[in-house]
Amino acid sequence: MHIKASPGFNIGAAGQPPGCTNSLHFHNTAEVFFVLKGRWRFFWGRDGKSGEVVLEEGDIFNIPTQVFRGFENVGTDYGVIMSMLGGDDAGGGVIWAPEVLHAAQVHGLQLSSTGRLYDTKRGEQLPANETPMRPLSEAELALLPDFKVNQVVPKYIGRYLDMRALAKGQPCDVISETGLIKDRPGFTVDMLSEASLEASNCTVPKDLVYMVMHGHWRISWGEEVLNLSPGDTCWVPPGLEHQIEVAMSGEAAIFRVTRTNDAAGLTWSDAK
C-alpha cells in the first residue's frame, strides 16, 4: 500500500533476484540506499566503471547527485534495498544514460519525459500530451561530475556495524551536516538500536519516517499502537506526539528520516 503523503522526500524499495542489474541513471536530488536483505554491488560513472562497492545488510549509501549509478544483487537469494529520495517528486525524476534509452527502444519500450514507461509491443503509445525523454548530449554529459572510489567510500557510505557501535546511549547521526555522511539533502537520517536512549514521548515539528532494519518495534500515539517488522515503513505527521520502542528482545535497528528546512537539491558542496 502506498502512503499518500508529501513529506519533502520519497521512500521506496527495490527487490531483485541474484544477478539482476539496474541500469545506469542519475537524480538531481539525493538518492540514499540501505540494504535490507542480501548483498549488493553499487557501481557508478559515465560507463559504470569509475568505481564500485559491495554493501552488506544494514549498510547505507548516499550516492552523489548527477552521477550515473546502477546496482546489482550479488547475493545468493532474492535481495531488497530501501531508498530515500530528495524532494516530493524525487528531483523531477530519473535521468537515464543515453545507451539505456537506446536499448529500451530496441526492445519496444519508450520512456516519456515524465518518467512513465510505455511498452509499444503491448500496444501502448506515448500520449499526445507527453514527449519522449531526450538523451543527454555529449556536451551535457561532459559537465557531469566524476568520482573515484577513494572520493566516495570514505564520505558517502555508512557501515551497519559502525552505526550500531555509535548508537549506544543515543541515536547514531548518519546523514546530516554533522553526521557520518555530511550532507544536507532536505532530510536527516539517524539510526536507533536497542541500546539507544529515547525520551518516553517525542513530538517533532516536521514529517518523519521510520524504516525498520532489524528486530521488531512498537510505535504508539494516544490509544493507538502499531507494531513494525523489518522492511516496514511508518510516516509520522508533524506535531504528532508518539513513542517509539523496541517490541522484542534481541538485536534491533531502525532508521529515522526527518524533514529539514533545507531544499532538496544537489549534494551539499561542503560534503565533497
Could you characterize what this model shows?
With 272 residues, the protein is mainly beta. The protein is built from four helices and 21 strands. It has a six-stranded mixed β-sheet with strand order 14-13-15-21-16-19. A five-stranded antiparallel β-sheet has the order 1-8-3-6-12. A five-stranded antiparallel β-sheet has the order 5-4-7-2-9. A hairpin with a 2-residue loop joins strand 17 (217-221) and strand 18 (224-228). The model has no long low-confidence stretch (mean pLDDT 92).
Throw out a few tags for this protein.
272 residues; mainly beta; Jelly Rolls; 2 domains; six-stranded mixed β-sheet; five-stranded antiparallel β-sheet; 11% helix; globular
E-strand count:
21
Query: Termini distance?
Result: 37 Å
The level of helicity is: 10-25%
CATH homologous superfamily (4th level) name of the largest domain: Jelly Rolls
CATH architecture title of the largest domain: Sandwich
What's the pLDDT, averaged over the residues? 92
Shape: globular
Please count the helical segments: 4
Evaluate the radius of gyration: 19 Å
Largest sheet: 6 strands, mixed
Spatial strand sequence of the major β-sheet: 14-13-15-21-16-19
Strand portion: 35-45%
Structural class: mainly beta
Number of structural units classed as domains:
2
Note the run of SSEs as H and E.
EEEEEEEEEHEEHHEHEEEEEEEEE
